[in-house]
Structure formats: C-alpha cells, structure tokens
C-alpha cells in the first residue's frame, strides 16, 4: 500500500508540472497586455518599460516561468492588483470558504444520492424508483443558478427564514461553524448539492442493480444470510465506486461553483475567480487557477488511493 | 403429519413441484426422491428446468416474481412452510449449495476466509478465532494447498479449481445434510473437473452427505451419482440408477442424450449424432409429450396426450408411450437418428 502511494505520487509530479506551465502561460494567452490593467491609459513609454522590468516581463518566457515557479514553490503567488494583498492569502481564505461550502454540499448530495440510489436500485421499476429517478434527473438538469435564485426568492425574500447572500452576519467572509453562520450556508449548500445528488443517485442505482443481479448475491442468500446481511455486502461492493464519484463531485464543486458562489455572494474561489476576471487581476487569476488545478490533481490522487484501499482487485490487477 | 423415524425420511423429496415465472411454467410437476447418503444427478439441456428445480429446494427465487406449488421436503423440513427466519437458518445450515462459476459466486471484495467465517458465524455462536480455525480445517479437508495462506486470498487470486474447492468448503462449513451442486464442473478445465467430482464423491461418502448435482454432462453424472433423473421441458422423463440410465435407457430423449456424446473414438468422417430440433417454448407448451416434436418414435397419441409415468423395473421410471420400442431401439445399436454416415 505504501509503495503504491509512493508510485502514484511519482506519477502525479509530471501532471502537476504540466498544470503549472499551463497556468503560467494563461497570462500570456489572454488577449491584450497584462500590464494594461495596472497602468493608466496615458502612461508614458518610460513608465511602461519600467513596469515591464518590475514585473519581469522583459525577460524571455522560460526565465519568467522559472522565476515564477521558484516563487510559487516558496508559497509566493504574487500580489493582487486589485486589493494589494498577497494572492496566496486571498486564495487561501477563498479556498477554505469554498471547501466548507463544497464539503457541506457534497455531504448533503451524497447522503440523499446514496439513499435514493439504494432505494431505486433495490426496488427497480417500482413507483419509488420512478420518483427517485425523476428527482435525480431534475437534479442533474436543473440550472443551479436558477434554482439558487428560486430558493432565495422563496426562503429569503418571501418567507424571510434564511439570509440570501454572504457567508456570515459580519460580512467578513470568514465562515465559522456556529448557528449564525450555519444559517448562511444552508441555501447555497442545498443549491450546490442538487447536482451531485442526482449524479450519485443515478450511479448508485445502476451500481446496486448490477450488484444485486450478480451470482454472489444468490450465493450469499444460499449460505443463509438475511437480507440485512446481503445488504452489507452490497454496500461494501458499491462503496469504492460511490466514493470515487463523491470525490470527483467534490472536486467539481470546488472548481465549478462560480455561478452559485456569485448568486449567493459566497466568498469562495469561484467568487474570487469571477472578481479576478472582471477586474483583470492577472496575478490573482493565475494564482487561483493554479491552486484549483492542484487541488484537482490531489483529489484524484486521494480518490485513487481510497479506491485501492477499498477494492482489493485494483492494486494487484 | 407425524414425525417419521429418521432413517425413513428421504434427504430430499419433491412432490408435484411446479415453478412458474409469470406465465412460463418452468418446472411442471416434478416428483423426486433422494435417499440419505446418496447422490442424485439431474441432467438435461439448458432450459429444461433442472437448475430451477435445484434452487426451489432453497427457495432461492425472489418472492412475487415466482410461484412455487407442490411439496418440498429437504433435510426433514417442509421448505415451503418455513418463515423468513427459519428459511435463512435452513439455507447453509441444513442444505447448502455450490455454484457453476465459483469466481462469480464469491463476493469479490472479501477474502475467501472471511466469507467462510461469515457463514459459520451466521449459523453458530462461535468466536472469530474458532471460526477461522474451522475455516482452515475445511480448506485442508478439500485439499487446498497451503490453506493458511489461501484463507487470506481474494477469490480472484485463486485458480478455478481451487475456487470451486473453496466453494465446497464454504458449503460444508455449517455441516449441512444435503449439498446441492449446480453444474459444479462446467466452468472448470477438463483435468480439474474430474478432481472436483472425485472430491464430491469422497466427501459424500465420508460425511454421509446427500447430494443433488445438476449437470448436462452425462459423464459427470455417472461419475458421482447413484441415481440419475433426466429432465426435459420442466418434467422428469426418466429416473433410475446411473447404470440403468446409461445401459438400459427407456426414454427416447435419454437415448438421444447418450447418443449425442462424443465419447469413444468417433470414426473419421462420421457425424456426431444430435437430437433434431430444439426444446419447446415453455410459455406455449404443446399438449401431449413435450418431446414428441423431436422424437423418432412419436406417434399420434404422443402429440395428444402426456404419457403417464411407468415403472419399467423397480425404481426405474419412464414417462413415455413407447418405452419398449425405445429400449429395443437402443439395444439394436445404430439408430434411425443416424441420418448420414459418410
């Protein structure tokens, strides 16, 4: 197992390297001069050259990349143009907020998804199955920013039960696990949970139906296991795939929550990314994309390792 | 019903067993009796209902989707009268089963040892360590090499023959009286097949087990079984001792099965005899003998009326209107079925 993790870590290194190159080049792929956001429109050529040198844009690309990578490896992602604060600090805070929101959403989505999936898989073609399937199709296909707005209209504007936006009453953007902050996370988390719920429910349904149709289930019954005993085997067989899907969904939520975070003004990476794009804050953009990409790489690694631990056939095959 | 004295109760007794899935009558009135300590082989083509008959003994069908009628007695229990709890005690405890494809019959994510221990602890209150010791002894009993190590193997880490041995060990783990074997050698290499059959025979003798083995391989049936029952389209068409069935068959279908074996040297250029046609559609069962459309002896009556079961000698029963003609045809050797000889 240890050796396996080590092996996976080695194979991940080139991926991480590639990701960093892409992130770095993004700035140069973007149309327009990266400096145009920093400089006033009437800047003199001397000022432009000076800034160019200050940001290191006068050096050849590979050298720029080396310098940038060196800084990144030391935790220095540069300084945000818009706020003047270190990018690492901005991104770090946003990552924590996103992570909290994504985790809560995944937890909700996973719980309901697994529940619906098992019910549907066990009672295939029954009314319960139809209802669960309809719910999961709804979950996968409903536009979540729309759902978010509807929820805000119903629960905040009309009923006034829950706050519509932000992460906390103080507006500081630091979420804490207390009752007041909990109220702020409910709506965005439910909105975000709908997609993983649908995907997990559909996957688990297919998974459970497939497992139940396998010969070993009959063999388990033949050796006298109760339905509960058989159920435990089904869970154990479904777990690796279900967890893998959950991990990937968590990843997607972390990166793909721009819309939801924007709708709810949740101070996470998606919100930050959105702001960085509109303010042409390139260091911030570069930094947050890099962190998000690295997060995906790490997440895939964790999921792989977890699957190996749960399914004995993977490692040895 | 009073409790009969032990030796008189057969290990398995099926009376008028009928199993239907929806409109399809898969098993259509099967009477079968297996004495204690004996082995019975159920043979027949795919779809003849032999596996369904076997599963009926453990009631292994999803409730609601199947209908079982008749009477099933196994290991002294009235199987159809068992409630949920008693049924799961009965399964694996009194009667256990081994399957055609052992790789698929084990849960892939648990070790073989865990699965044997699970069965033991399901039926008995016993510590994990004691259960493990017994699982180990079982693997030794079925002659799996280095059993200590094999106990911690996952099913996919074993060879086919070894898996089937482990399956047998699992089936025997709670000391059942009756062992049901569903095509236990079909998925195995030819050389391994005979070893598994011999092991079954040996265990049957040593442990006083009663075995029902389902197979389409007459050779395998003869190897292990005291008696053979031939099934066709959900009915038993002939039963007798293994010797009677092979040497003195009285049903045209049995004769067809015997003739269609490639046993012995087929002369070069000669054709392997087959039974023409295919089994009937069980949802639209024709009246009369279900084998009539494929039978070389079939007359008008065969197409109209189902033949009754006749006892041609003590214990040798045949359901055919033309038992004597069939037996004579078999004794005469080359048959009207042998259409073309090069």
TrEMBL record, chain A:
Pfam families associated with the record: BPD_transp_1, BPD_transp_1_N
Listed transmembrane segments: 9-30, 99-122, 134-162, 182-201, 242-264, 284-303
Family: Belongs to the binding-protein-dependent transport system permease family.
Entry-linked InterPro entries: BPD_transp_1_N, MetI-like, MetI-like_sf
Identification of the protein by name: Peptide/nickel transport system permease protein
Organism: Methylobacterium aerolatum
PROSITE patterns linked: ABC_TM1
Membrane topology: Multi-pass membrane protein
Domain ABC transmembrane type-1: 95-307
From TrEMBL, chain B:
Domain called ABC transporter: residue spans: 12-258
InterPro entries tied to this protein: AAA+_ATPase (IPR003593), ABC_Ni/Peptide_Import (IPR050388), ABC_transporter-like_ATP-bd (IPR003439), ABC_transporter-like_CS (IPR017871), Oligopep_ABC_C (IPR013563), P-loop_NTPase (IPR027417)
This protein's record includes keyword Transferase: no
Gene3D superfamilies: P-loop containing nucleotide triphosphate hydrolases
Compartments in which it is found: Cell inner membrane
GO MF entry, a single one: ATP binding
PROSITE patterns listed in its UniProt record: ABC_TRANSPORTER_1 (PS00211), ABC_TRANSPORTER_2 (PS50893)
Entry keywords, A to Z: ATP-binding, Cell membrane, Membrane, Nucleotide-binding, Transport
Membrane topology: Peripheral membrane protein
Family membership: Belongs to the ABC transporter superfamily.
Name by which UniProt lists this protein: Peptide/nickel transport system ATP-binding protein
Lineage: Bacteria, Pseudomonadati, Pseudomonadota, Alphaproteobacteria, Hyphomicrobiales
